[in-house]
Amino acid sequence: MKPIIVVCIALLFFSCGNEPTHDFTLKGHVKGLKKGTVYLQRQNDSLMETIDSLAINGAPNFELHAGLSEPEILFLILDKNDTDAGTVVFFADKGITEINSTLKNFNYDAKIKGSKQQETLEEYLLMMSKFSDKNLDLIQESLEASKANDTTVSFEDNYNKLIKRKYLYTINFAVNHPDSEVSPYLAISEIPNTSVKFLEEIYNALSDKIKASKYGIMLKEMIDLRKAE
Question: What global pTM score does this model have?
Answer without folding.
Answer: 0.83
